[in-house]
Design goal:
alpha/beta; Rossmann fold; 2 domains; 7-stranded mixed beta sheet; 3-stranded antiparallel beta sheet
């Protein structure tokens, strides 16, 4: 009955208040017992004793008291070098912007960029180190580059005989559900180095173990585990502070929709980048948002309501142009399936957009859609959305069965 009233409000008025129950109860769900890997460093100081340490981190590298991992390691270990991923050591660079080498103003330590011309630490960068550590908050999605910065660093650690240490952090979108297909051979990139699903359901520490064993990296790996985290937790369940992981992932809600609506980055449809709600908006100047929302709500997809929406990106695709489309409102984070939902949105957008809709075409540098999805069948029409979703469900189940032996938490 409540759902029918909500849908009637949307159809008649084009707006209504929609309770995001998956997040509205965050205060009630907090679990103050969750401790990050970096919170547990005192139990592992013997690992760092007498060692020269390098740290790969960014603005998300804080403990539960908002203390910087850089400051913590600088005071407790012999920290001699820093390494920055995409978006830089302080998280200020936009997606895709090259990040240069700098000196950290607070510590005076060199900061080596691992996003730009150099994505893998060079022998010169780590020759003076004994330990290379990693403390960055991931978002649980295959296209997010931090996990590949970690993988490249693990490769360098193996090649140069260094110990690799991961300070583990929660998967903000939970460790139970796995969605999406695998990267196919020939479509590997820095937004998909390895065949893992779009929503992989693992923490960075678990992924490090998986990469190390399944993909033959073979470095000396130590994972400093969290305590109190459970697989069925979303980030709002942890009681931990959230620092935006990049300029376009400002909230845990964004992280939940990103594994799905990120696919629109390979189309001429805006995914809301350039607004204050990136990846929650989907639209274009030529779309009918009212009709799109009506079609999608009629499907009664689990855990989500679609509101007709108008937005004007301040940068990126359609900068300064009013777009019509939808906003996703998550009503049940446990039931919501971001990948399936986004693919069904895409199907409807293609149908409603007609000749206005386009996939981005590979031009030697822009293979974005194929690299996001994992192959070219969606773009070329060699497989339907329904066919891909069916195939991906099988691949996700197979991956989860393989990944479970690397799980560190129940």
């Amino acid at each position: 009955m409540v759902r029918a009233i909500i849908l009637l409000c949307i159809a008649v008025f084009g707006f209504c208040f929609i309770p995001q129950t998956g997040y509205a109860n965050a205060a009630d769900a907090k679990n103050e017992a969750v401790r990050l890997g970096i919170d547990n460093i005192d139990d592992y100081l013997h690992i760092f004793a007498g060692k020269k340490v390098g740290l790969i981190t960014n603005a998300t590298g804080i403990n539960s008291k908002f203390e910087s991992s850089v400051d913590i390691l600088y005071s407790k270990t012999n920290l001699v070098a820093l390494f920055s991923p995409e978006h830089g050591i302080r998280g200020a660079a936009k997606a895709g912007d090259k990040v240069g080498n700098i000196i950290d103003a607070k510590t005076g330590l060199p900061v080596h960029s691992l996003y730009g011309a150099t994505k893998k630490p060079t022998p010169e960068m780590i020759s003076g180190l004994d330990i290379l550590a990693f403390d960055i908050q991931d978002v649980g999605a295959r296209p997010y580059t931090y996990i590949y910065t970690m993988a490249y660093a693990m490769q360098s650690a193996k090649e140069q005989g260094k110990t690799f240490v991961v300070f583990d952090r929660p998967n903000p979108i939970g460790g139970v559900e796995v969605e999406g297909g695998l990267i196919k051979p020939g479509y590997e990139s820095f937004i998909g180095m390895y065949p893992i699903p779009s929503r992989h359901g693992m923490t960075v520490g678990e992924l490090a173990q998986f990469f190390n064993s399944e993909f033959g990296i073979g470095c000396e790996l130590i994972v400093i585990k969290m305590t109190g985290w459970q697989r069925n937790m979303y980030y709002f369940d942890t009681g931990l502070p959230w620092v935006m992981t990049s300029p376009n992932i400002p909230t845990p809600e964004t992280a939940l929709v990103y594994p799905g609506t990120g696919i629109f980055g390979g189309t001429n449809v805006s995914e809301g980048v350039g607004t204050t709600r990136p990846f929650e908006f989907v639209g274009a100047p030529w779309l009918n948002g009212e009709f799109l929302a009506w079609r999608l709500n009629r499907m009664e997809l689990p855990g989500v309501i679609f509101r007709p929406a108008y937005f004007t990106p301040q940068f990126g695709l359609y900068k300064g142009e009013q777009c019509a489309g939808i906003q996703l409102h998550i009503t049940d984070s446990n039931a919501f399936r971001p990948v399936k939902t986004a693919m069904l949105i895409l199907d409807q957008v293609k149908d409603l957009g007609g000749d206005n809709f386009r996939f981005k075409r590979p031009n030697g540098t822009d293979r974005s859609l194929d690299l996001i999805v994992g192959d070219d069948r969606l773009r070329t029409g060699r497989a339907t959305v329904a066919e891909l979703l069916g195939e991906w469900a099988v691949e996700a189940d197979s991956f989860k069965a393989k990944a479970q032996k690397y799980y560190l938490y129940e």
